Amino acid sequence: MNYRKSLTIFLMIILLGNFASAIVYEDAENENSTQSWQVYDNIPTGAVVSRVFDSDKQSNIIELMGAGMENGYILGSFDETQSWNNREDNLLTWSISCSEYYTIYILINTQKGYRYLYYTPHDVDYGMSNGSQYIHFGLGTDSTDGQWRTFSRDIKADLKKFEIDNELISVNAFLIRGDAKLDDIEMSGGEDNTKPTITLIGDSLVTVIQDTTYIDAGATAEDNIDGDVTVDIVTQNSVDTAVLGTYTVTYDVNDSSGNQAIQQMRTVSVVTSTDTAKDVLILYDTAGSFGHMGKTNAIFLENLLGHFDLNVISKPTSQYVENEMNSKKAVFYLGTTYDVLSYYSEGSAEKLAYQKFYRDVATKDRTIVWINYNLPLLEQFWIDNNLDNNTFA
């Protein structure tokens, strides 16, 4: 009988553990929801926090409307005595719909003082500068497409990613700059229900010439608890370049808790050489403190070329695949990072991609438009590898 009682208690603990409670700070279901918010930066004046019904979510949500990034809103408080002061939970979840640039700040107290974890629509985590209170993470450039997205962040893990010798004491407030819609802001004890995220390397639409070699660029995967789980990705690749047609390459991954990522797919079209006469490739730098300027300039160039009857493909040079320019009408290189190769270690995938690009520039009969820095790197590579080509220089 005692064994049965012990077993019953043990099973109850397991069941209760599977349903970790969450503290809901905002779900917009209370008609007084807006009273929890403050406009902490109301210059220019006119910023408004509203509770409205959203037709996409089919529920009430919080809408922040003002002068974009010039206004700031806070849920919680800068004053620790009036803040969330959540010392038990570390998993913060929120839903957001936004069509423009935003910055979300999470105010936390740590053993080394206050920190702001801040999240922006970028594809990389920029981290922490020496002596700064701010730690910068990216939520993806597609997070400003106006679609509802739910993000879950392990606040303790985010802190330790760039300040490993620090410890989280409490989570105090949720702040945001920018016009946005928000819902379901809550914290829980960190039970891992978060799916890993798969990110394609390169483009989701790829064209390859019939009877040439197709080398898939692959993908990366990140999990909020397990970290980098790229090695666990299962790829299904049935591309046959001998046969014209359209193929789908799929990427799947699970984390150690069994959470399955949303499957990512790449469409590969095998075509004859005449089908690609309108393809233009834009390559850009992403390394260094000004690495983000590469993508920014590429977007400008994409918009410009979009006025012509062209198929524009844009990607970082660090993801270039050998012979990729074979099927392109022209190739644009945006050298926005000075001495870009110095940012990559010898033998790294990124540096090898640049070297493949330099070799193809020398050996392929393609129009190359080189903008800004790094011509000396190209010339030195040709010299070191005995590539006698002066048509570009």
What CATH first level of the largest domain would be assigned? Mainly Beta
Secondary-structure content class: alpha+beta
Distance between the termini: 88 Å
Uncertain residue segments: 1-20
Task: Quickly count the helices.
Answer: 5
Radius of gyration: 25 Å
Summarize the main sheet: 7 strands, mixed
Topology, number of strands: 24
What number is the mean pLDDT? Answer: 88
What count of domains describes the coordinates?
A: 3
Q: How do the helices and strands follow one another from N- to C-terminus?
A: HEEEEEEEEEEEHEEEEEEEEEEHEEHEH
User: Which range best describes the helical content: under 10%, 10-25%, 25-40%, 40-55%, 55-70% or over 70%?
Assistant: 10-25%
CATH level-3 fold name of the largest domain: Jelly Rolls
CATH architecture of the largest domain: Sandwich
Strand content: 35-45%
**Spatial sequence of strands, sheet with the most strands:** 2-5-12-7-8-10-9
The general outline is elongated
Task: Describe, in plain words, how this protein is organized in 3D.
It is a single chain. The model is unreliable at 1-20 (pLDDT under 50). The chain is elongated. The termini are far apart. It is 16% helix and 36% strand. With 393 residues, it is of the alpha+beta class. The longest helix is centred in the N-terminal third of the chain and has 17 residues, at 2-18. The protein has helices at 2-18, 155-162, 292-305, 349-363, 375-384; strands at residues 22-26, 37-41, 48-54, 59-65, 72-76, 91-97, 103-110, 113-120, 127-128, 134-138, 149-154, 168-177, 180-188, 197-200, 205-209, 219-223, 227-228, 234-236, 245-252, 264-271, 279-284, 311-316, 330-335, 367-372. It has a seven-stranded mixed beta sheet with strand order 2-5-12-7-8-10-9, with helices on one face. Strands 1, 3, 4, 6, 11 and 13 form a six-stranded antiparallel beta sheet that branches. The protein has five helices and 24 strands. It folds into three domains: 23-189, Sandwich (Jelly Rolls), CATH 2.60.120; 197-271, Sandwich (Immunoglobulin-like), CATH 2.60.40.10; 278-385, 3-Layer(aba) Sandwich (Rossmann fold), CATH 3.40.50.
